[in-house]
Amino acid sequence: MLEVFPLSGVLAWENRQFLARAVGYVSWQGVLQFIDVGSGLPISPSTHEVAGQVSPCAQVVYVDNDPVVISHVAALPADGGSGQLAAVPGDVRRPEAILADPGLTAMIDLGKPFCVILGMVLDFVEPAAAADITATFRQAMPPGSFLIISVGINNNTPDVARRVIEAYTAGTVHVHSRHQIAGYFADPEIVAPGLTEARRWRPPPAQASAGSRTADVLAGVARKPPAG
């Protein structure tokens, strides 16, 4: 992938940094329950590390369809200020099953505000399916909950998109537009700075922001407002 699309390594790093900042933001808002869907191996800075730095009461459930991820998370220590964590098998295409999993409900109280993280996982489903997936999670969220989403986007370079789709053999990659990604948030209130490139979502002052390029990671954080 790096040979075909050298920027992919930079985008992966920017996405990881965005997720850390977003999890930190949500944690400081008082929401300390996280469902990290399609998490992959929780490399540092991981969701439970960032949330645990805010509060040792943080509870994180990693969801993935890779058994290696599940066994790896099960072997991680849940102490040292990193909060409580668990891992359950699940497929982002089946959000109802994820939310009903006994391993998840044993850790996450779905009647209280929680945060769903969909970090670079909707890239592997078609836009129509992504809309249904996010709608299911939004409907399950009580008021005060948060939704974190990041999706790779193509900046008007069809040849690059085609090469990436052809080169990625671990799964089928789908192209999502900015308009479609904005629709995945729907009713929740997107917090400042809104839906933007991951590198521009509340970056540290010293972090430089590159100019235009062939692709980016579009990211945002939204809060479900109180009912009524």
Explain this structure:
This protein is α/β, with parallel strands linked by helices and 228 residues long. The chain has one domain: Rossmann fold. Helix content is 34%, strand content 19%. It is built from eight helices and eight strands; from the N terminus they run H-E-H-E-H-E-H-H-E-H-E-H-H-E-E-E. The chain has helices spanning 7-28, 47-54, 67-74, 95-100, 102-105, 127-140, 158-167, 178-183; strands at 33-37, 59-64, 84-89, 115-119, 146-154, 189-190, 196-197, 215-223. Strands 1, 2, 3, 4, 5, 6, 7 and 8 form an eight-stranded mixed sheet that branches. Helix 2 (47-54) links the parallel strand 1 (33-37) and strand 2. Helix 1 packs parallel to helix 2. The longest helix has 22 residues, at 7-28. It is globular and about 45 Å long. The termini are far apart. The mean pLDDT is 88.
Helices and strands, in order, run as HEHEHEHHEHEHHEEE
Q: Detail the poorly predicted runs.
A: none
- Please tell me the total number of domains: 1
How big is the Rg? 17 Å
Rounded mean pLDDT is 88
Large-scale geometry:
globular
- CATH structural architecture: 3-Layer(aba) Sandwich
Number of E strands = 8
Q: Provide the helix percentage.
A: 25-40%
By secondary-structure content and strand pairing, the structural class works out as alpha/beta
- End-to-end separation in angstroms reads 47 Å
CATH first level: Alpha Beta
